Give the backbone structure.
Amino acid sequence: MRDTRDRIRHTLLFEGIAIVLTSLIVAALVETEVVTAGVLALILSLLSMAWNYQYNLLFDRWLLKTHGSAVPGVRTVKLRTLHAIGFEGGFLVVSLPLVAWWLDLGLWHALVMDVGFSIFFVGYGFVFNWGYDLAFPISDPEPASPVI
């Protein structure tokens, strides 16, 4: 398991790199200043982290209520898929009006951009986490003593 310090480093690196990448991409796509895109990326990053915390708290409470447990054993592939879709869908509801307003885009163009970035983040998350595991491997824990 990773400790709290490692999880904080992971989150800060993930979000920091994401802010830089998305700022450059948005600035190029909508022909705006990198600083304008960067401020939007920072706001969306903070919103995403807040939404992630709240969504997962609500999801775990829902699991506890409907399944009697929130432990990983009840988290099937189907449930994890629904969880991911629910997270992205909920974040889209929050981010879409902000993106449209901030970048002075119509809702359709903002939706296309938001969906594109959702797809981007699936790939980015995969590559980042793989690279993070290579750069900061988890050491094997001490073997547990047998219980007699």
In short: The chain has a mean pLDDT of 87. The CA atoms of residues 73 and 114 lie 32 Å apart.
